[in-house]
């Protein structure tokens, strides 16, 4: 039998008070079912962040060892696996960033979160809804997407479905197993419904960089609330008002948290880089010089605690930070504590402070 942890264990079937045995994967769970966690540590699945641009002072678009530095920074705050997320840029720059991501994927080092692949956020975006993305958009085509994915696997791709040719691109990519998300868009409600019918599976940073809900023009947000099954949301309480978060939680069954984290994540206030943009962190936000929000400095641990503070039970907050992101990627061996799953584990104190992080059974230190 492998390593042992004792405490309140969150399984897919609910809480158990008992013992967890594991190596790189969970081997056995022994204990008694419980209505909720009792005294002692809480053992929950490691967080999965499907939208993160940087951390620890480094930006994915730098290339080199930046993806590794980001993976280390976010592992320290409970993220055990992630998608390295690119910015809109000239295609050769995106390709260079993907080569560095591939190197981090192929040889994870102790202390790093597992890099599961790429979230390609652009360049197939609407130039009228760029947010903090640089103005380097191009029309999407399958050959370009496949060429980029051959460098490092694209697991999630954000696009604006209203642009010419993009509905067919949604069909082709989703047929190949890519999770296509609607974002940075000026789509109408009807255009989003058509994209979902074509295979789009989610929404990128719901509410942000998309046209909002109006009762006569529901737009992308209205379509998400009416029809979405999966959607990512940044619960830093800056990008989205708590009331809007609560509305989305009622409407979208598998709404899940992301950080949209930047180089400023885990760092003090000051200047940082986000792709081609200079940005500044001040307290709880990261912004361009004109005040536009530019990603975040959120960590998944803080996202989890924010969801709890909004009133979610621990088990539900955990699912929205671990299980649902895994389900969106079609992963059956991450995001949950069950025999055969990777031992991506967090040990939390009763006040939810982070006591220990294990990535595939290995403690960070």
UniProtKB/TrEMBL annotation:
Q: GO terms for biological process?
A: N-acetylglucosamine catabolic process
Annotated ranges, domain Amidohydrolase-related: 43-361
- Which cofactor(s) does the record list? a divalent metal cation
**Keywords for this protein:** Carbohydrate metabolism, Hydrolase, Metal-binding
The protein's matches in InterPro entries, at most eight in alphabetical order, are given as: Amidohydro-rel, GlcNAc_6-P_deAcase, Metal-dep_hydrolase_composite, Metal_Hydrolase
Protein family (similarity comment): Belongs to the metallo-dependent hydrolases superfamily. NagA family.
Instruction: Provide the protein name.
Output: N-acetylglucosamine-6-phosphate deacetylase
Origin species: Sorangium cellulosum
């Amino acid at each position: 039998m492998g390593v042992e942890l004792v405490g309140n264990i969150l399984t897919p079937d609910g809480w158990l008070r008992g013992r967890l045995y594991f190596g790189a994967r969970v081997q056995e769970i022994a204990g008694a079912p419980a209505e909720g966690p009792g005294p002692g540590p809480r053992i929950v699945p490691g967080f999965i962040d499907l939208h993160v641009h940087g951390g620890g002072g480094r930006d994915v678009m730098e290339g080199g060892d930046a993806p590794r530095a980001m993976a280390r920074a976010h592992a320290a705050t409970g993220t055990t696996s992630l998608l390295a997320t690119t910015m809109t840029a000239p295609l050769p720059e995106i390709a260079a960033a993907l080569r560095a991501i591939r190197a981090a994927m192929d040889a994870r080092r102790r202390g790093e979160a597992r890099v599961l692949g790429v979230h390609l956020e652009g360049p197939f975006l609407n130039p009228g809804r760029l947010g903090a993305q640089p103005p380097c958009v191009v029309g999407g085509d399958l050959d370009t997407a496949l060429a980029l994915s051959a460098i490092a696997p694209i697991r999630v791709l954000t696009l604006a479905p209203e642009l010419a040719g993009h509905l067919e691109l949604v069909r082709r990519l989703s047929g190949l197993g890519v999770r296509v998300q609607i974002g940075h868009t000026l789509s109408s409600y009807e255009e989003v419904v058509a994209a979902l019918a074509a295979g789009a599976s989610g929404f990128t940073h719901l509410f942000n960089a998309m046209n909002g809900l109006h009762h006569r023009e529901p737009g992308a947000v209205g379509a998400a609330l009416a029809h979405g099954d999966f959607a990512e949301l940044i619960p830093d309480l800056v990008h989205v008002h708590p009331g809007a978060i609560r509305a989305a939680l009622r409407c979208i069954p598998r709404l899940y948290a992301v950080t949209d984290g930047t180089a400023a994540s885990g760092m003090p206030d000051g200047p940082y880089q986000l792709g081609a943009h200079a940005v500044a962190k001040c307290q709880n936000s990261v912004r361009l010089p004109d005040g536009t929000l530019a990603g975040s400095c959120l960590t998944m641990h803080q996202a989890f605690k924010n969801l709890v503070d909004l009133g979610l039970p621990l088990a539900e907050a955990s699912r929205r930070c671990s299980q649902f992101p895994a389900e969106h990627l079609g992963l059956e061996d991450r995001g949950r504590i069950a025999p055969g799953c990777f031992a991506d584990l967090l040990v939390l104190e009763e006040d939810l402070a982070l006591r220990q992080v294990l990535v595939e059974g290995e403690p960070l230190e």
